[in-house]
Amino acid sequence: MSDPLDILRTGFAHAEAYRKGVSARSCGPERDYAEMLESFGEPLPERGQNGEAVISELVQKGEPGLTPMVHPRFFGWVLGGSDPVGVAADWLVSAWGQNAAFHESSPTASALEEIAGRWLLDILDLPGQAAVGFVTGATVANFTALAAARGAILRRSGWDPDADGLFGAPPITVFVGDDAHTSVFSALGYLGLGRNRVCRVRTDAQGRMEPTDLERRVDETAGPKIIIAQAGQINTGAFDPFPEIVNVAREAQAWLHVDGAFGLWARAHPSYNPLTTGVELADSWAVDGHKWLQTPFDSGYTIVRDTDALRQAMQIDASYLPPQTGEDRIPCFLVPELSRRARGVPTWAMLKTLGRDGIEELVDRHCSVAKQISARLDRISGVCVLNEVQLNQIIVEFGASDTTNEQRGMLTEAVITRIRDLGVIFVGGARWKGAWVMRISVICNATGPTEIDAVVNTISSAWADVRANTVKTELSS
């Protein structure tokens, strides 16, 4: 029988070793999914095994299939670097073993959520009376906020969807920018509002919603309305024009929701805050902690101005559950979960550790690195940065301007593949306005100016290799 403390020490030792060596690893998984299935594939054991041995086997077999997302040169997706403070706080969450559903079941977890929620509203400069629900990430944050929106706007029309469902309810029209994130459409599907049954509003070259097209479409539509705007387009980092959108929403008595998974953190820095002017006038917001706040997965926040609307959408009741008294904040009344982790703990720890100036520094550093990378890439022949780098996102296309869109897409994918083969940095690909592009997302806490040369040199080298192979192929054919 394993000593429980020895098991914990074994886990800590392996975690420490991984973090110490991660920056020296190849910036990508060593084995693919099929190989990992084969590695772990075995029948269910008939007899239990030694806990320390199980943990060591997990590490030995599992690490080759890990993508090092905490690596300083990981740029594949918009993911934070799981700061050690947040990781340590999250270990305590698991060790404490709290179900953070109620203030009576876990006073500490509930109090930390309350305080962390206040701090979030402060650092994001959002209405102090808003409710903050701690969820898994922006997908569930969007879902939760839009559930509150659905109920609130239908009750204005005399229908309570939370009590009576949607059969026979007045139809809701949802207006969303043509380049909204996929999580928004997923949330609408979960809510019965339909992924495809939306009014898609025209966007500009950077993915910003065009307010004149929104106004025209809203004016042509009767009935309850929800407008979904965006703070930080996932490819370009662009921000919708919030003041104009707010005016349209107010005139139409529509609920305005903002998907700000990473872009809402721009409000924490005085130089980037102006990009979000007017966003504070919305009705609800979604934002992630496991992006710029660097909490471990999974951590997101749904923020709703009308606390009652959120509570009505998320309410849960049973005789064995404690009732709400006075102004008590009951966590599970604000999110779609009863059994839930104490997600507020790592959020509190990261906000306490970083403070206002630490979050400002992260945003400033990452945006500065992104702009320097972009400027240097744009000087390389055949490399084209397609977006205005306002924040931390860069999208790049490869190939001469006189080549076809299809040819540039093939070259871009070849460069991405070559970069991943080299293992120095990790980048991703995406479809943008009909083009296949390479995405660079600068948001890991370990990333700083010292990584710029490695990024530019690796991309330049990969592009040179692809061009050389292309010429060789053309000559041989």
From TrEMBL:
It comes from Ruegeria haliotis. The keyword Cytoplasm does not apply. It holds the Pfam family Pyridoxal_deC. Gene3D superfamilies: Aspartate Aminotransferase, domain 1 (3.90.1150.10), Type I PLP-dependent aspartate aminotransferase-like (Major domain) (3.40.640.10). Coiled coil: none annotated. Belongs to the group II decarboxylase family. InterPro entries: Aromatic_deC, PyrdxlP-dep_de-COase, PyrdxlP-dep_Trfase, PyrdxlP-dep_Trfase_major, PyrdxlP-dep_Trfase_small. This is Aspartate aminotransferase family protein. GO terms for molecular function: transaminase activity. Keywords: Aminotransferase, Decarboxylase, Lyase, Pyridoxal phosphate, Transferase. Its cofactor is pyridoxal 5'-phosphate.
